[in-house]
Design a protein that fits this description.
Blueprint (H helix, E strand, L loop, with lengths): L1 H18 L10 H29 L1 H20 L5 H33 L2 H29 L6 H4 L1 H15 L13 H21 L13 H21 L15 H18 L1 H16 L7 H8 L1 H21 L2 H20 L6 H28 L6 H45 L4 H8 L3 H9 L4 H6 L1 H5 L3 H7 L4 H33 L13 E2 L7 E2 L23 E5 L7 E5 L15 E6 L6 E6 L14 E2 L3 E6 L11 E5 L5 E6 L5 E4 L5 E2 L1 E2 L20 E5 L4
Antiparallel strand pairs: 1-2, 3-4, 5-6, 5-9, 6-13, 7-12, 8-11, 8-14, 9-10
Helix pairs in contact: 1-2, 1-5, 2-3, 2-4, 2-8, 2-16, 3-4, 3-7, 4-5, 4-16, 5-12, 5-13, 5-15, 8-9, 8-16, 10-15, 10-16, 10-22, 11-12, 11-22, 13-14, 13-15, 14-15, 14-22, 16-17, 16-22
Length: about 725
């Protein structure tokens, strides 16, 4: 939904501007056009890290649900625009920026929620489906925009509302936080310096591709230079701040993880190679190929989206498959190979003539989609697998920031290269071509002196470039046959083909270089790597200490008896009288456990919460479905769920941390209870699950001087 909304504007812009009665090609309106396209991208790039960090602190599902609601509200407000002219355009820009806040909440937490919910051997496929859906949405948006905008431009915004409303209620009822939640304070200095620095850089890039005085672009504009240099300086200050605050927003220490750093570098470079591609291909199709093959200029936006569908098909086919394979073999071979395939597809695109055969163009687009799909899913899975459980929100947000920033950077780079390629030969070609058709030299030179970005924008918007830029007054004084030829489907595409080809060569050369460097960065990530939080290590008898995983709340000591077993009452999981499919932890008095310490096919669940004594439960697994205790239980399906309560069984406890640890000390799964005290531990060994030990006895007072209260654990859903 969020990525469809980001691209649906590209095709719908002509109808939107006609709806609010404004000409986007007028010199003073160019910035309105750019901000309507890029404002959403800028705000999502800036805010995803902050919202990812807040998800780690307050709950990822909570932030995700709020994102759905905000996105839906501002989609409605976009559609009810009643103003016209500049005021209407400014309203749309402001509402798009606010809508981007909701989009940032969704993007920042979706990958972390999926990583929490799926076991390691299924994350590649799950993240791959999510990643491919997001990227494919950017191309589906092109078709939707072409279909809906001619009917009613407001539908472009309203189409998101039903999905947003459904997603809001569905996510609120069905999604529960299963990740590790780490309470902390907001890093205000980090948030402010990061936002100011990144906004300045992205704004500088946005205005850098606009004309400045007599220059074709604005890179010599003092304000652009000040924004770029000042933004970089503020980002340097941000980096220093983040190394000195107690609870940083941007976890610089995550860059010590090679898989995280290499994956994000590859993602940034691949995004720069792919991001501007959409604009270049749309201009190529709309401005040259489609008119030369019988399509009117007003029809080209819709058909450009349709003719680019092979790119989406490649994504949809390769993404899930590569994600599934990366679960088994690691991300490196597929992500690296995907970037090599993408670079090869750019080489083939560069070799195509401007007036190509469509079957060849479609085959290359399909190959490019396959390459990008091979890369996207394993790379995102590799990044998320490398993160500690309590930092997946901020780490996922950092990764999305690189991806979204790459889109804006790519647009700046691709447009700059295209404009440079056009600026060398387009003015002379345009002037001589117009004069040859009887256009007065003064009018021909005026049109030729227009910045190339005006020609690109006219083509992108599906306008008839010569008719729009030359104007009706000049055309009225020309012979009818000359005027008809100038505004027909043959003159402008043939005229611009040569200069456009030079710009294409420069743009594709950059894309090839970006993809090859991304392939190198991807290879340097190393072999298959999954971060495992350091497991809790129980002390030997008499030591009275315990060590927990990195970033987890420090539990109180859990002393062991001399025989290595935990003292206290015994609990066994047995079917409840409540009904089938339910099992509860029930008291068994002082009856000794049916087994001692966990056997090789068992594991221990450790429950900790601030201010409470830790509770340990040894979970036994059957051999071929045969019970290991005297109490027959249903076989498990690799997961357990239930509720943690305290200090009494009828008071759910949010924020409690549960970890399943095998006899070697390896953490099999971990999670945090949601606001209802519920939890779900997945990816556990399948088979019989039986609780055979209860909480440890009272320990020494905690750091707050209070004796820890008892945690109460209720299990359910233990049948497959």
């Amino acid at each position: 939904m969020a990525t469809i909304n980001a691209s649906i504007m590209l095709i719908a812009l002509p109808d939107i501007f006609r709806g609010i009665r404004i000409d986007p090609l007028q010199p003073g309106n160019t910035s309105l056009l750019l901000w309507l396209i890029m404002g959403y991208l800028v705000v999502t790039a800036v805010l995803v890290v902050s919202f990812g960090r807040m998800g780690d602190m307050f709950g990822r599902v909570r932030m995700y649900n709020a994102g759905f609601a905000i996105f839906s509200v501002f989609s409605v407000l976009l559609s009810v625009t009643w103003m016209h002219g500049t005021a209407g355009a400014l309203w749309l820009i402001l509402m798009r920026v606010a809508q981007g806040v909701g989009g940032a909440m969704l993007m920042a937490n979706s990958n972390a929620i999926i990583t929490d919910a799926f076991p390691v051997d299924q994350r590649g496929l799950a993240l791959g489906l999510n990643q491919v859906a997001g990227i494919a949405g950017s191309f589906v948006g092109l078709v939707l925009g072409g279909l809906l905008a001619p009917v009613e431009w407001r539908l472009v915004f309203l189409v998101s509302v039903p999905f947003g409303v459904f997603g809001t209620f569905w996510a609120y009822r069905k999604l529960h936080d299963t990740g590790v939640r780490r309470p902390a304070r907001l890093d205000w200095w980090g948030n402010v310096t990061f936002a100011v620095g990144l906004i300045a850089v992205l704004v500088g890039i946005t205005y850098g591709i606009q004309p400045y005085r007599g220059h074709t672009m604005g890179w010599t504009n003092p304000w652009v230079l000040a924004a770029l240099l000042g933004g970089v300086a503020v980002l340097v200050v941000f980096g220093i701040v983040e190394t000195r605050v107690a609870e940083p927003m941007f976890r610089m220490n995550l860059f010590r993880i090679r898989a995280f750093t290499a994956g994000n570098l590859a993602s940034l470079l691949s995004g720069m190679g792919r991001g501007g591609l959409m604009f270049i291909l749309i201009i190529w199709l709309q401005g040259i190929w489609l008119p030369r093959h019988g399509y009117g200029f007003t029809q080209t936006p819709l058909w450009a989206g349709i003719y680019m569908l092979p790119l989406t098909v490649g994504f949809l086919v390769a993404g899930p498959v590569s994600g599934w394979l990366s679960d088994r073999f690691g991300a490196r071979p597929f992500a690296t190979g995907g970037m090599v395939v993408a670079a090869g597809s750019f080489v083939l695109l560069a070799l195509l003539p401007v007036d190509f055969q469509y079957w060849a163009f479609a085959a290359i687009l399909l190959l490019n989609g396959v390459g990008m799909g091979l890369f996207a899913s394993p790379n995102r899975a590799g990044i998320m697998n490398s993160l500690p459980a309590d930092q997946r929100g901020v780490g996922g947000g950092m990764s999305t920031t690189f991806q979204n920033s790459a889109m804006v950077l790519s647009i700046g780079v691709f447009f700059s290269l295209m404009i440079l390629g056009l600026a060398g030969t387009l003015p002379h070609t345009l002037s001589s071509g117009l004069v040859a058709q009887g256009v007065p030299a003064a009018d021909a030179n005026r049109l030729a002196a227009l910045p190339p970005v005006s020609v690109l924008f006219a083509t992108l918007l599906g306008y008839n470039p010569v008719q729009t830029l030359l104007g009706p007054n000049v055309l009225a004084h020309l012979p009818a046959n000359h005027a008809g030829y100038l505004t027909g489907r043959a003159f402008f595409p043939a005229l611009i083909s040569g200069p456009f080809a030079k710009g294409l060569d420069a743009a594709f050369a950059f894309a090839i270089a970006a993809c090859l460097v991304a392939a190198v960065a991807s290879w340097l990530r190393g072999g298959k790597y999954v971060h495992t939080d350091q497991p809790p290590v129980l002390a030997a008898a008499g030591t009275g200490t315990a060590r927990t995983s990195v970033g987890a709340p420090e539990p109180a000591a859990v002393p062991l008896r001399a025989d290595g077993r935990a003292p206290g009452a015994v609990r066994s999981s047995a079917p409840s009288a409540v009904g089938p499919g339910i099992a509860r932890a029930i008291q068994r008095g002082d009856q000794p456990p049916a087994t001692g310490d966990p056997p090789p096919d068992g594991y221990t669940v450790i429950v900790t919460a601030h201010g409470y004594r830790p509770a340990r439960y040894a979970m036994m697994i059957s051999g071929n479905g045969q019970p290991t205790t005297e109490y027959p239980d249903p076989r498990g399906n690799g997961q357990i769920s239930g509720v943690v309560c305290g200090p009494s069984p009828d008071r759910p406890l949010p924020g409690a941390v549960l970890r399943a640890v095998d006899p070697t000390g390896r953490v099999l799964a971990d999670t945090t209870t949601d606001r209802d005290g519920r939890f779900q531990l997945t990816a556990l060994p399948p088979g019989l699950s039986a609780v055979t030990r209860a909480e440890a006895p009272p320990t020494e007072p905690d750091t707050h001087g209070r004796a820890g209260a008892t945690l109460h654990l209720t299990l359910d859903g233990m049948w497959p």
